[in-house]
Structures are given as structure tokens and as C-alpha cells.
Design goal:
This protein is of the alpha+beta class. The strands form nine sheets. Strands 2, 3, 4, 5, 10, 20 and 21 form a seven-stranded mixed beta sheet that branches. The protein has a five-stranded antiparallel beta sheet with strand order 14-13-25-24-23, sandwiched between helices. The chain starts with 10 loop residues before the first helix and ends in a 58-residue tail after the last strand.
Length: 756
């Protein structure tokens, strides 16, 4: 018998003990490995992060670069204002969430308490504007219009205003130089959002957004934000565990943003804006015999383009607004004034976003299409007062016939039935309702070749494409709307829209004869923008080159040095030979001399023999609305396009205004006299402005020889404007009435009668 005591350990217990020992050793090994990884392998990384916990960044916003006109006048600059801001973090530490502080602040600032509270709240999916969409840790500006006395009250009573600061800050200012507004072209700024800051947190320089940054949200401010914004200065402060500053770890000074020189001439811009507003005011006083009321003239746009480069000399959109209302955060009242239905949505730039039927201004495209299809330019074509196609009557304007005429004469008198006949003939040649496998589709192909149905590529955001209603579009439109049409058709209504729905439900994908003939005169489902038409008429003027429209000319450093030039870009050529271009050129000249625009130009004293103008009038019909006035013109230097929604005929609604724009450009008086000394811009300005050593532009005072009693205003003084180019009887203080956003994309189905 053995003296060794029994341990009671069985084989199973032994195995369990071994497994437990292995598990403990594994855990110890894992812990040791992790400690090695943290303390040795990645020691530098975590040491840096730990050190970073004691570093606080103080951001000094950069001064934003200026936007200048072609001569160096400041369109968008900066001014120092007393900015009152609140810290949301400090407000939330108050028992009532800072409500009492904001109420006291509102009393000092003379603002409604509601406005102050709305500006200090954070934006989210459920919170409407106004609100703060920047970082919640960034001071939120309540006003940028504080007085010195108000700032002193706040700073002397710090115990009553915890988290409130008042300090001078450079803020964006839209100068309105020469009286030019340009709100939609310039755009506006707003703070970066938390999401934008987070997405760029690991980047540096201009690629990184800081909580204090303001960035462009529209117009040139948006497109050239990277050039204009500059780089904020960052001071890294060392702090102890109580948050007290103990030293400076690093300091990078802010870098001012570069300046942007544009092709806009502020004086011409003012003339264009004034004359567009005046044309709309005049239209509202004009009786519309079709609707038995005055024209509504609810919106409009105008473009002046350099035909040899595609650069924009002026661009106006109505209704407009004061872009300075975005300073310091927009108020609820102002935001509603820009976005509700009654405001007519002035944020829209109707020169590039307003889509409507072009009416007879489209006929230059149809003429080129006819030439491509093989029709003789000098042949004779019937111009009856009306035509019956597919059981429907398609009329000329006021049912006037002109017998047998050429295509040039058809353009001059704007004969619809000539183009109806050509389009119908081509429709039949392509197979009619049962199209051939290979169709010519010359009228549609030519429109695409002229650049329609696509963006022009202008350096402004949110440009609309317009629409060429060809076979591909018809099929796509049918696929997207068939169910809705059929549902409406089942109700058996007798209204015009019900009948159209029934027809489209059955075969809305079919390109019908009515579609083809309406399209040929710029009606039906055709949509264009004023900029697209300005580009086309510029190409007609310059020999067929389609330039890409541009507003910016160059980026200039704060010291006045050229950073980069934004050169004109050729996108292509018109699909027409020199003979066809000359033919259209002669015909559009005839429109001004003896055609549909003559009564507003040569009949009103325009010196056609000295400064040759070309034009095409258009009056587009819109179902349920008054006619749209469209006038497209060009000279040797400029294309000028104007359109007014519900503004009457092409020449009647826009003729006087466009003529006065040319008068301002070339120095022409009402009797046809030409004085180059009074011309605002007889030729487009090609060279860049010169700059002083401090980076300010050298603006040469314009010479207006013989300007009686300062009738032209002082070109070197903000607010001066050549108002002599408005009719003497114009009322002062004209207000442009806004239009609903839906008017920017108007329904264009007509009853088949186009107008000159």
C-alpha cells in the first residue's frame, strides 16, 4: 500500500486543467501582443493622438477673392462689419437652452426675438429655413449689421450674454456697381455643413472645409469657389487638462482668395436689366385681344453675347432680388419671399434655366434643315393663309397669305405655312405614321447639330438642356406617361387635355404630322433657353462657329498677377455651308429692314446703313397662357436675345428694349445719329484690366463726349447708369413682378398657329 495521498484527479479533470492553462496563457499572450502593438509598434501614432488631445485649433477665416467686371469694377467684394454671433454650446448650458439670452440679445439688436431664435437653431430634415446649416460648434452669426453701440452693450454686460460675441469681420458684399444687380449670375454664400466638414477632415488646404468656412452655393460664387475662397489661417494652441492655453504649437496665416475677372460689363448689364424691366412694364399696359386683358409679362430674360468668343457681356433675369439678403443668414420673411409660389421664384436664372418654345425664331434652324434635306434656297414655296393637315387647320398669323415666296421671304414675313409644308413633306418622305427603318429626320437632326437639346456648357450651375422632341424623345415620353394618360382617358372627359390624353394613350409614341409641322415653327413640345438661342445667333453672325458661352475671363492673384486665363472654347460648327449661312444672313437682315421687326428698328430710326442688324421675331403660343415674346438679333459684334413670358409678340413685346440696348452699345440716338464717344462698348473688351501694385484694378473713366447734364450718369461712380437709353416717358421705381417657378418650364402644346 502506497503512502502517496490520493489527489482525486481523473483523466477528465486533467484535460480540463490543461485546456484552462492553455486558455490563460493565450489570453496573456494576446494581452502582451496588444500591449506591444500599442506601446512599441504604434507608439508614435498614439503618442501623436494623445498630444493632439491637448491641441486646440483656432481658425481665422480667409478674405474671399473679389468678382470683377471686364474693366475691373467690383461686382462682389468684401466689407468690414460688426458681426454678432452666438455659441450654441454655451446656449445649451443654460437652463432654458439659451432662450432668455436670445430674447435679451434681440432687444439690444432691435430684432424680433423669433428671428434671432430661428437663426440660432440648427437645420435638419424637420426644421425649415431659416436655420443654421453650419457646424454646431462654430459661432452662429445672428446679424452682420450691428452698430458700435450695440456691440458695446453686449461686451460690457457679458454676464447677461454668455456665449455672445461681437467683433469686426469681413463679410461678402454685392456692390451693385453702376446699378447692375446680377443676383442670379453672381450667386451667394452660405456656411459649410457638418457633413461637408466631416467628408474633408482628412484633407488639407483648399480641399479641406473648416467649420468657419462660407462657400458658394449658386452662380459664379459656386463654380469658382475654389479660386475665390482662399485658405483659412489655423493657429494650434497647446492647452492643459483644464483647457488653459500654455503655448502655441503651430501657426499658419490665412491666404486671401484669388480674384475673378468676368466678361460682364457692369454698365451694359445695367442697361439690359433696365430695358428688360421696362419692356415687361410696358407689356403689362398693353391689351391682349385674344385673352381680353393686359399681358401679364410675369418673367423674362435677356442675354448679350460676344459673337466672336461666346463670352457673356450681360445676362439679366426677371424677377430678381438683392443678393445681400443672404448676409448673416437669411431671415424667414426674406426666405419665404424668395421661395413661395407668390414670389415667382427669383432665384431662377431664366437666361439659362427658363425653358419655353422659341416660336418663329426657330425658323433659321428649319431653313438650314430644309437646305440639308435638298430643298432649293431660292425656290418658290406656297404661303397660303392656312393649311389642313391630318384633319386640323394650321394658320398663319392673323390668317395672312403671301402667295408664292422664297425661304428668305418666308423668314422676313415669318410665314408659317411655308415651313408647315416643308415639314409635312419631309414627314411623308420618312414614312408618315409608319416610319421607314431609316428616316432622314432632317429637321430634328439639324436642331441637334445647332446645339439644341443639350447644355451649352456655360460656367454657371444648373443649366437646363431644353428639348428637341424627336422620335427618341417621343418614345421615352410615352413610356414615362402612358399609365397616367390612360387613367385620365378612362374618365371620358371632354376637355382639351382629356382628348389629348386619350390620343396619347393609344399611340403617344408616334410622331404625327401635327407634331412635325408645329415643331418646324418652334412650337409643340420644343423647348429652348435664351442662352441656347444667343449661341445659335452668334454662330450665324461669326460664320458658323459654336463657341462655348463663358462668363469668367481670368483668375487674378490678390496682388494683380495672372493666375490663369479662361480662354474661349470652340465646341463645333453649324451644319451649314457658306452659301446657306449667307442666305440666312441676308434674310435676317431683311427682317430688320422690311420684315416683322422693321417697325421697331428702321421704322424707329435705327441707322441700318451704318450699323447692320439682323433679327428674327417669335411669338410662341402656350396652352392656357398668353403668348411668349421672343426676339433674337445680332450685329457684327454682339448677339442680343430677349424673351418675356406672357409678354405679347416678338417685336411688340421686346423690340423697343432690344433696340435701346444696341443704342447703348453703339452710341446711337433716337434719330439714328451715331456718336462713338457715347458708345458704352462699340466693340467687346478683349484685354484684361490693369492692376495697381496693391492689387486694385485701374479703372479708366469712360468718355461720354457731349453728354448733356450728365444724362448718362457717371460711369466711375457706383449707381451711375446710362438711363438715356430708356424711353423718356418711363415711370420711375418700376417693380418687376415675380413669376412662379413652373413658368420656367412652360407647357408648349399649341393649337397649331404660330406667330411672327
Amino acid at each position: 500500500m502506497s503512502n502517496i495521498p490520493e489527489t482525486g484527479r481523473t483523466r477528465r479533470v486533467t484535460i480540463r486543467l490543461v485546456v484552462l492553462q492553455i486558455l490563460v496563457l493565450s489570453l496573456l499572450a494576446t494581452l502582451g501582443g496588444r500591449l506591444w502593438y500599442l506601446q512599441i509598434r504604434n507608439a508614435k501614432e498614439y503618442t501623436a493622438k494623445a498630444t493632439g488631445n491637448h491641441i486646440r485649433e483656432v481658425v481665422e477665416p480667409a478674405v474671399r477673392g473679389e468678382i470683377l467686371d471686364a474693366s475691373g469694377r467690383i461686382l462682389a467684394g468684401n466689407e468690414t462689419k460688426l458681426v454678432v454671433s452666438v455659441s450654441r454650446t454655451s446656449l445649451l448650458q443654460q437652463k432654458d437652452g439659451g432662450k432668455a439670452v436670445l430674447t435679451r440679445l434681440a432687444e439690444v439688436l432691435g430684432m424680433p426675438a423669433k428671428d434671432v431664435q430661428e437663426k440660432a437653431r440648427l437645420c435638419d430634415a424637420k426644421t425649415p429655413q431659416p436655420c443654421w446649416n453650419g457646424s454646431p460648434y462654430q459661432p452662429i452669426p445672428v446679424t452682420k449689421e450691428a452698430t458700435t453701440q450695440q456691440a458695446m452693450q453686449i461686451m460690457e454686460r457679458r454676464e447677461d450674454f454668455p456665449g455672445v460675441t461681437a467683433q469686426p469681420t469681413a463679410v461678402r458684399h454685392y456692390t451693385g456697381v453702376e446699378g447692375a444687380n446680377m443676383a442670379q449670375v453672381l450667386g451667394y454664400l452660405s456656411p459649410v455643413t457638418d457633413e461637408e466638414v466631416s467628408k474633408t477632415a482628412d484633407k488639407t488646404g483648399l480641399d479641406r472645409y473648416l467649420p468657419a468656412d462660407q462657400i458658394g452655393r449658386a452662380g459664379l460664387e459656386s463654380v469658382y469657389d475654389r479660386d475665390l475662397r482662399g485658405t483659412a489661417g489655423i493657429t494650434k494652441l497647446e492647452v492643459d487638462n483644464l483647457g488653459r492655453v500654455i503655448g502655441t504649437a503651430d501657426k499658419a496665416p490665412p491666404r486671401t482668395g484669388d480674384n475673378l475677372v468676368t466678361s460682364i460689363d457692369a454698365r451694359v448689364q445695367k442697361v439690359v436689366e433696365d430695358n428688360l424691366a421696362q419692356a415687361m412694364a410696358d407689356a403689362r399696359k398693353t391689351w391682349d385681344k385674344n385673352t381680353k386683358r393686359n399681358y401679364d409679362a410675369d418673367s423674362g430674360a435677356a442675354v448679350v453675347m460676344d459673337v466672336k468668343t461666346g463670352r457673356i457681356v450681360a445676362m439679366a433675369s426677371a424677377p430678381s432680388y438683392d443678393p445681400n439678403i443672404w448676409q448673416g443668414g437669411i431671415s424667414g420673411k426674406d426666405y419665404q419671399g424668395l421661395t413661395n409660389k407668390d414670389s415667382n421664384y427669383p432665384l431662377l436664372n431664366r437666361a439659362i434655366q427658363g425653358q419655353s418654345a422659341p416660336g418663329s425664331t426657330f425658323k433659321v434652324v428649319s431653313t438650314a434643315a430644309a437646305a440639308q434635306a435638298g430643298y432649293a434656297l431660292n425656290g418658290n414655296y406656297a404661303c397660303p393663309s392656312s393649311m389642313t393637315i391630318g384633319g386640323r387647320e394650321f394658320k398663319n398669323f392673323e390668317s395672312q397669305g403671301h402667295g408664292s415666296i422664297t425661304l428668305a421671304q418666308a423668314l422676313e414675313v415669318s410665314c408659317d405655312t411655308v415651313f408647315y409644308g416643308l415639314a409635312y413633306d419631309q414627314w411623308l418622305a420618312d414614312g408618315g405614321i409608319k416610319p421607314k427603318k431609316e428616316t432622314g429626320d432632317w429637321f430634328y437632326k439639324t436642331a441637334h447639330q445647332f446645339g439644341l437639346g443639350a447644355k451649352t456648357g456655360i460656367d454657371l450651375p444648373s443649366e437646363a438642356t431644353g428639348r428637341v422632341p424627336d422620335r427618341q424623345w417621343k418614345q421615352s415620353f410615352y413610356d414615362n406617361n402612358k399609365d397616367a394618360w390612360c387613367k385620365q382617358a378612362e374618365k371620358g372627359g371632354k376637355e382639351y387635355s382629356d382628348l389629348i390624353a386619350k390620343e396619347n394613350c393609344a399611340d403617344g409614341y408616334v410622331l404625327r404630322a401635327g407634331d412635325a409641322v408645329n415643331y418646324a415653327i418652334g412650337q409643340g413640345d420644343t423647348l429652348v433657353t435664351p442662352l441656347q438661342m444667343a449661341r445659335i445667333y452668334s454662330a450665324l453672325a461669326n460664320g458658323g462657329t459654336l463657341w462655348r458661352p463663358t462668363v469668367a475671363k481670368a483668375v487674378i492673384s490678390p496682388s494683380g498677377e495672372l493666375v490663369r486665363e479662361i480662354a474661349p472654347h470652340e465646341d463645333g460648327k453649324l451644319p451649314t455651308d457658306a452659301k446657306t449661312l449667307q442666305y440666312i444672313d441676308d434674310a435676317t437682315k431683311g427682317v430688320v429692314s422690311t420684315g416683322t421687326a422693321a417697325w421697331k428698328f428702321t421704322g424707329a430710326g435705327w441707322p441700318q446703313g451704318k450699323i447692320e442688324l439682323h433679327a428674327k421675331t417669335g411669338t410662341a403660343e402656350v396652352e392656357g397662357k398668353q403668348t411668349t415674346s421672343y426676339l433674337t438679333t445680332y450685329s457684327r459684334d454682339y448677339a442680343v436675345v430677349m424673351t418675356i413670358s406672357q409678354g405679347g409678340t416678338g417685336s411688340g413685346g421686346s423690340g423697343d428694349a432690344v433696340r435701346r440696348i444696341y443704342q447703348a452699345l453703339y452710341g446711337v440716338d433716337d434719330k439714328g445719329g451715331v456718336d462713338n464717344g457715347k458708345a458704352l462698348l462699340s466693340t467687346p473688351q478683349a484685354e484684361l484690366p490693369k492692376f495697381n501694385a496693391d492689387g486694385t484694378a485701374i479703372i479708366k473713366p469712360a468718355s461720354f463726349g457731349g453728354d448733356p447734364a450728365g444724362a448718362f450718369g457717371d460711369p466711375g461712380v457706383t449707381g451711375g447708369s446710362p438711363r438715356v437709353f430708356l424711353d423718356p416717358a418711363q415711370p420711375s421705381g418700376t417693380v418687376v413682378v415675380p413669376v412662379a417657378a413652373v413658368a420656367a418650364v412652360e407647357p408648349t402644346r399649341s393649337n397649331g398657329r404660330g406667330r411672327a
